[in-house]
Amino acid sequence: MNENCKKYDDMSDVFEYGNISDDEIVKLCNQILLESKDEKNDIILETMYHAVFTAANYRNIADKIEIDSILDYIDYFNEEISDYIISILAFTGRRKYINIIKSIGEKYGDLDISEAIGELESRCKSSE
Predict the structure, then answer these.
(1) What is the reported pTM?
(2) 111's torsion region: left (phi>0), alpha (psi -120 to 50) or beta?
(3) pLDDT in tens, 104-115
């Protein structure tokens, strides 16, 4: 488990500070999302989604990753992982994710979905 966590933590560092192209980051994030569907360990899943969140936050690539690939699994994620997911969805700037963000917020009342929705809305306006 520690090796997997270290792998994704290292990827987070590369996404934030590394000299890697956005196209390569998108490919790696899509691979992480695919791998996450088979992962059962919440600690590893959290490091996986932290890596994707880091890429989306620092490299502005959320609208290019295939986040739809995990939507069928979204109900199985715990609160910490769901917190990363609502941020990633918000960073896409796609209005179609507002209801998903709201449903996660209903499930986990401690999550601040208003911030995520505000982020999504601000990205929608800047891309229109």
Answers:
(1) 0.93
(2) beta
(3) 999 999 998 999
